[in-house]
From TrEMBL:
<feature type="domain" description="ASCH">
    <location>
        <begin position="12"/>
        <end position="138"/>
    </location>
</feature>
<dbReference type="Pfam" id="PF04266">
    <property type="entry name" value="ASCH"/>
</dbReference>
<dbReference type="InterPro" id="IPR015947">
    <property type="entry name" value="PUA-like_sf"/>
</dbReference>
<dbReference type="InterPro" id="IPR009326">
    <property type="entry name" value="DUF984"/>
</dbReference>
<dbReference type="InterPro" id="IPR007374">
    <property type="entry name" value="ASCH_domain"/>
</dbReference>
<protein>
    <submittedName>
        <fullName>ASCH domain-containing protein</fullName>
    </submittedName>
</protein>
Length: 142
């Protein structure tokens, strides 16, 4: 795409194997949703993405790999995440319990706790989650 305006970056996880796995899942169509902590948005003083917003999906090497468009944003309690959202994350989860266990590992990681500025951070049923759906508008540099 030539002469396009700069897009906000879409950063899934932290650079490394997990980000690479997630970017690959987006590019091959398995991943059409993602989850974040509402607290992350608050900590970074960032607005929730509006439906229709476009962003550039960034790989671990900092390259733009695709243009994504937000199609839905829901804020809900961790306890209210549904099976369809878990399946649409494209990470192979067969149940909400599997999805939650995987995400708790990530959210309780040293990297995430450092990013949040809370070395003791933990989630529970009442933790607010941002469940975002998106579609690939264009693949870049492939």
């Amino acid at each position: 795409m030539e002469n396009r305006e700069a897009l906000k970056p879409c950063l899934l996880a932290f650079p490394g194997p997990l980000r690479d796995q997630l970017v690959a899942a987006v590019l091959d169509g398995r991943k059409v949703s993602t989850s974040g902590l509402l607290l992350e948005y608050e900590t970074e003083n960032e607005e929730l993405p509006p439906v229709g917003e476009r962003s550039a999906l960034i790989d671990s090497d900092g390259r733009e790999t695709a243009v994504l468009e937000v199609t839905e944003v829901r804020v809900l309690r961790l306890a209210d995440v549904d099976l369809q959202h878990a399946l649409d994350e494209g990470e192979g989860y067969a149940s909400v319990a599997e999805w939650r266990a995987g995400h708790e590992r990530f959210w309780h990681s040293d990297e995430m706790r450092e990013a949040l500025g809370d070395p003791e951070f933990t989630v529970d049923d009442e933790t607010m989650i941002v469940a975002e759906r998106f579609r690939v508008v264009e693949r870049l540099g492939l």
